[in-house]
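Message: I would value a second opinion on how I read folds in token form. Give me a protein, with the fold worked out from its sequence. Write it directly below this note and I will take it from there.
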Amino acid sequence: MKRLLCLILLLISLPVLASAETLVTSFYPVWILTLNLTDGIEGLDVVNMAEPTTGCLHDYTLQNSDMVTLSKADALLVNGAGMESFLPVVTGAYPDLPVIDATDGLPFIGESDIVEIGEAEEGEAVNSHLWLDPQRAAGMAANLAEGLVKLLPDREQQILDNLEKFSERLKALDETVREETAGIDRKVIIFHEALPYFAEACGLTPAAIVNKEPEDSLPTAQLVTVTKLIRSEEKMPLILKSAEEDPSVNTLVNETGIPVCELDPMTSGPDNPPLDYYEAIMMQNVQTLLNAIAQ
């Protein structure tokens, strides 16, 4: 009896370890932002649901492993604005799971006189790829932080401190991007849904936005339309695209000699990115753009 009493007293005297809160992010850009907001906060486990090589989630199908991950989640952090078309499945399976929307209330690229070729992603009323504009990325971070504070009020000060530091870095990045690209007089033809936001951040004027997957070939009529558009410009435009092989771009290059600038849309990346990964890739993209224009 005395030994049992001693054991009970020992257990009572041990510090109580709080169970870790599990935050699940939908895909890479949201993961990068969330890692910065939760840096140094003990007891938080940030898990990215989609593999780092997945890319955008337009056609993403939930895996059994995703549902297992979500069953252990204390919150799901999403891009929003139609990016996660599978979200009704998640909320149906886990109706009590808090969902934090990164783009809620933020300004999207609106309708304009820009020529759009092809159909936008089904189910998306707006272009939801806001993260390639540092100003909008800062807004996304603020939305995520607000949701995290509501979820974890005991960590409010740490989250807000991280948000302040991250916001200052994003503001400095935005100023640098705009300074480096000021005065560029070149129209662009965009072949990736995320790149209109990058173009806007750099002050570039899109001559056209082509909505399609890289592996898909443009129908002949649309290819002719883009070719005519390129040849109608007084100064040769520049194609902005991702590194994925695109047969339509290859055809346009062969037909018109239009230069191509391959940028990183930041929809995928390394398994263990540094906290400044967002800034590093954005500045890499700016340098790639400047190099392409200088040729």
